[in-house]
Amino acid sequence: MPNGNTLHEVLTAVFQVRNVNEDPEVDNPELCVLLWQRALQPERGAWSLPGGLLREDEDMTTSARRQLAEKVDVRGVAHLEQLSVFSEPNRVPGVRLIASTFLGLVPLDADPDLPTDTAWHPVSALPRTAFDHGVVLTHARTRLAAKLSYTNIAFALAPHEFTMSTLREIYCAALGYQVDATNLQRVLGRRGVLVATGATAPPGPSGGRPPALYRFAESRLRVTDEFAALRPPG
Amino acid sequence: MPNGNTLHEVLTAVFQVRNVNEDPEVDNPELCVLLWQRALQPERGAWSLPGGLLREDEDMTTSARRQLAEKVDVRGVAHLEQLSVFSEPNRVPGVRLIASTFLGLVPLDADPDLPTDTAWHPVSALPRTAFDHGVVLTHARTRLAAKLSYTNIAFALAPHEFTMSTLREIYCAALGYQVDATNLQRVLGRRGVLVATGATAPPGPSGGRPPALYRFAESRLRVTDEFAALRPPG
DNA sequence: ACAAAAGTGTTCGTGCTACACCCATGG
DNA sequence: CCATGGGTGTAGCACGAACACTTTTGT
User: Count of CB contacts below 8 A, A vs B?
Assistant: First the structure.
C-alpha cells in the first residue's frame, strides 16, 4: 500500500495569559488557548486548534504562520516551535491526515481581533474539542510548563516591559501553581535572562512602593539551565 | 498550490556504544550510529540514515520499526522516540519529501548482523552524509545527551546487567566527556533508577575487587529530574 | 501614623562534585 | 604484601525555598 492520499496538516496550540474576568478591573489571569468552532461535519460544534493543510511550496513553520494569519495578527505570536507529529491512520475518520503540531505564544499585552468563530478559552474550562486536539493541547501545556523551568521562554508570554508582580502572575497562570516573586526574580536574575530597565511603574491606587520595570535580555529561545546533573567536569 | 506529490519519509538515528578498536581486547568504547551507503543517485556513495516512505496504513513509529527491520534485528532497538520534522521544500532535490526523524538506541551487548551496505560509524569520524542527514544526526545526539541528564534513558544503551565501570563508559561515550563513576552511582541510586542485583562479576585479569552488578529498575523512559527550578510549593 | 506593595537579607535544606580513604581480589 | 580496581565517607559548593525584615509610596 503506497501512499496516495496522505495529507499533511499543521495544528498550532496558541497560548496567552489573559484576564478571565467579566470586570476588567478585577485581576484574574489564566492561561488561555485559541480555538475555533467547527461549522461543518465532522465534529460540528466542537472546537479545533487553528491550522490547515500544508502546501507544497512551504515548510511547516511557514505553514503554521500562514494558517494562523487567518485567525490572529501573527505579529502577536512571539514564539513558535514544533511539537510532535500525530500520525495514527485513523486519527481523523475517512481521510489519512498526518498532523504536525506547534506551540505558539502570544504576549500578555496583545489583544488581537478575532473572527467570529474563534475565541480564547481558559485551559481550566475547555469546551468539547475535535478529534485528538485535546491530546495535542495537553502535550503543548506540558511542554510549555517544562520549558518555563529551564529556558527563557517566558519572554514570549510577557509584555516588552513588566513588573515582577506581572511576571509572577504569568508564571502562576502558565504553571498552575503559586510561584514566589522573590525567588523568581533571583532565579531569572542569576541566569541573566532578566534585566532591570531602571524605570519604575506608578504604584497602584492603594499606594505601595513603585515597582521596578524589567525586560527579558533576549527575545529568542535560549536554554538557561542545561545540566541538572552530570555536568561536564571543571 | 494544493498538495499532490508530497511524500513522507521516516528516518531514524540509531545509536549504540561500541568498542571501536581493531583489537577486541583493548577497550575503546565510542558512540556509533547506523548508516547505509547509497548505491544510486542522487548522493551516490554518501551515507544515509535508515528509513523509508511511510505507508498509508501505519503510524510513524510502526513505520520506523518496519524500516529498521531491513537493517538490524529490531528486537535490539530498546528505545525509539520521535524527534523533529524536516520539511523544507527543497531538502531533497526533485521531490517534495518530508522527513519525520526518530532516535533509536541499541544496548551495548547487542551485535546484530548487518547488510553489506550498512555499517556502524563512530560519531567522532562520520563519513559524508546525504542530504540533511548530518543535521538530523546532530539533533539526535543533542537530544540523547540532554535526556541522559534528566531521564533513565541509559537503560536502552546498557546491557541488562552491568558494572558501574561499564555504565560509566557508556555515559562517557554518549556525552563526550569524563563522568565520575562514584557520582554517577549516587545520582542514579538516589533517583531510584538503578538497583543492585546482589551478584558480582569476576575481577579483571590484573586483580581488583569484584564489581557489583546493577540493573535499571525500569526499561521504559521515565523523567527522573523534572523541575530544576520553580518547583511547585510544598 | 498606618496600610499596602515592592524589594532585600538570611536561614535552611538539598543535590551534586571532588577527593580522600577503605575494601577485596590476583599475582 | 603489594598493585589494581571497586566502593564508601565526607567536606564544600551552588542553588533554590521560605520567610522575616526593610523600603517606598498613598491616604
Answer: 117
pLDDT of residue A2: 45
Supply the mean pLDDT for chain B. 93
Contact A60 B179 (CB under 8 A): no
pLDDT in tens, B121-162: 999 999 999 999 999 999 999 999 999 999 999 999 999 999
Give the minimum alpha-carbon distance from A137 to chain B in angstroms, rounded to a whole number.
18
Which helix (H) or strand (E) segment is B125 a member of? none
What residue spans define the domains of chain A? 7-149, 152-216
Protein-covered nucleotides on strand C (Cβ within 7 A)? 3-9, 15-20, 23-27
Query: In terms of pTM, does the model score above 0.70?
Result: yes
Q: What are phi and psi of A171, to 5 degrees?
A: -65, -45
Residue A141 region by backbone torsions, left for phi larger than 0, else alpha for psi between -120 and 50, else beta: alpha
**A7-149 belongs to CATH 3.90.79.10:** yes
Contact B44, B74 (CB under 8 A): no
Instruction: Compare all CA atoms of chain A with the CA of B100 and give the residue at the minimum distance.
Output: A85
CATH-assigned architecture of domain A152-216: Orthogonal Bundle (1.10)
